[in-house]
Write a structure and sequence with these properties.
- This protein has 229 residues and is α+β, with helices and mostly antiparallel strands.
- An eight-stranded antiparallel beta barrel has the order 2-3-4-5-10-9-8-7.
- Strand 1 and strand 2 form a beta hairpin.
- The termini are far apart.
- 15% of the residues are buried.
């Protein structure tokens, strides 16, 4: 009799425990599907990048510096275009296209409409070292009263400033529009620079007198170019 009672109680206990386990399992599945939202995939990606395990540097997105949306390459200026430069509006009335030992550059004659003329030169220059990218050198030239002065191969004293020779040579040119020069010819030049960085240049079409001018650097992005209608 005692043995039968003990067996009966054991069977009842086992059945109760089984029902309890089944109930707990059902409750866990219900809580997992409805009680917790799935992780946001965007946040998960962000955490993967900004957390302890960053992506290798070689696969990250590089920084791209784009030119202003209204930037126009000054090498595309045509005779007749309007150019806003240093707060003055000019019209390009002529251009000289020059070549020398594989190098090419262009010089535009600009007129402000009040008989005020300036030359604007544009040339692509190599970087300071071979690994540096090339850049555009844009210069505005202001005439200097040096009548009769000849660009010697030694230093020159102009308006109390001493200039040292840096480069001289001869370039072939082709002219377009109004430049005061023949359609084609040879142009001699001699460039000088002062210790403070100021530049002075002499030029002459072969057979004519020397003319001189100061050079002022201008950022290509500061120019506003309006193509002729």
């Amino acid at each position: 009799m005692t043995i039968a009672v003990v067996l009966g109680l054991s069977i009842v206990t086992i059945i109760v425990i089984m029902f309890a386990l089944v109930a707990v399992a059902r409750q866990d599945r219900k809580g997992g599907s409805e009680g917790t939202a799935p992780p946001d995939p965007i946040h998960a990606t962000t955490n993967a990048i900004t957390g302890p395990h960053r992506l290798p540097a070689e696969v990250t997105q590089p920084t791209i510096l784009s030119a202003p949306p209204d930037f126009v390459d000054p090498r595309t200026i045509k005779v007749g275009d309007v150019i806003d430069c240093q707060g003055v509006r000019y019209r390009a009335i002529g251009a000289l296209y020059l070549t020398r030992k594989g190098s090419q550059w262009v010089e535009y004659l600009m007129d402000d409409g009040k008989r005020g003329y300036r030359w604007l030169s544009v040339e692509e220059r190599p970087g300071l070292v071979s690994t540096d990218p090339s850049y555009l050198e844009v210069l505005v030239w202001t005439p200097v009263p040096t009548q009769g002065m000849v660009p010697a191969k030694h230093t020159l004293l102009v308006e109390g400033v001493e200039y040292f020779p840096v480069e001289r040579g001869t370039a072939a040119f082709r002219s377009d529009g109004t430049t005061g020069h023949p359609e084609r010819g040879l142009l001699d030049f001699a460039d000088y620079q002062a210790e403070d960085g100021r530049s002075l240049s002499f030029q002459r079409v072969q057979g004519e007198m020397w003319r001189s001018a100061y050079a002022t650097p201008v950022s290509p992005g500061s120019l506003r170019i309006h193509p002729r209608s």
